[in-house]
TrEMBL record:
Location (main, coarse): membrane
Highest rank taxon of the organism: Eukaryota
Organism: Oikopleura dioica
Residue span(s) of domain Fatty acid hydroxylase: 120-184
Function: Glyceryl-ether monooxygenase that cleaves the O-alkyl bond of ether lipids. Ether lipids are essential components of brain membranes.
Subcellular location per the Swiss-Prot or TrEMBL entry: Endomembrane system
Protein name: Transmembrane protein 195
Transmembrane segments: 41-60
Keyword field: Lipid metabolism, Membrane, Oxidoreductase, Transmembrane, Transmembrane helix
Protein topology in the membrane: Multi-pass membrane protein
The keyword Lipid metabolism appears for this protein: yes
Keyword Thylakoid appears in the UniProt entry: no
Length: 193
């Protein structure tokens, strides 16, 4: 049995991504010891995400929302996601990574115990708060909106819209995550090599 005792270990491990989408993970599962141990969660979630997009498309075609799932719009969103991943694979995420490390080296002034549940909860709340302010600023600051508006350019609101992200958005959103690096031991998977 795993540390929760709810499910057998093999089922527990296989459901990590689905549990992660609902914040049903434990601190030990989400606290990598080194940067190299940070999993590529985006790559892990892609099959599940595509499954739910296809399921949504099928339901929309056979239910009262017929016509609200446009294949061409979804294909455009998937193209955005593919383009973003290609740029990530060739190293386009470097600005986030380097600024995050720079903030750690220059400004960290206290440490949290990386094994503590309190650290895990603070990291979860801090990442969520950072995302909230970054996203709010993307809607209110013209320069940031110009990078973010791609996400809102679809005809219909559906799951595939979540994949429609601008490759330029990360150049304006990284400063909101810098406060997460002031305490030495708060780690997030936002800035991967």
């Amino acid at each position: 049995m795993n540390e929760t005792g709810f499910l057998p270990d093999d089922i527990w491990e296989k459901t990590f991504i689905l549990r992660g989408l609902l914040y049903l993970v434990t601190p030990s599962e989400t606290s990598p010891k080194t940067l190299d141990d940070v999993p590529d969660v985006v790559a892990m979630v892609i099959p599940y995400f595509f499954f739910f997009i296809v399921l949504e498309g099928i339901i929309c075609q056979f239910r009262w929302t017929k016509g609200r799932f446009r294949f061409n719009d979804s294909l455009a969103s998937m193209s955005h996601a593919t383009c973003l991943r290609v740029f990530e694979l060739i190293g386009e995420v470097a600005i986030e990574y380097h600024m995050y490390i720079l903030a750690y080296e220059k400004f960290h002034f206290f440490e949290f115990d990386p094994e503590s549940k309190t650290t895990w909860i603070l990291a979860l709340l801090g990442a969520d708060l950072s995302y909230y302010w970054a996203h709010r600023a993307m809607h209110e600051v013209n320069l940031m909106w110009s990078a973010h508006q791609v996400h809102h350019s679809g005809e219909d609101y559906n799951l595939s819209m979540g994949m429609r992200q601008s490759i330029f958005q990360r150049y304006t959103s990284w400063p909101f995550y810098i406060p997460m690096r002031v305490p030495k031991s708060i780690r997030t998977g936002l800035f991967q090599k």
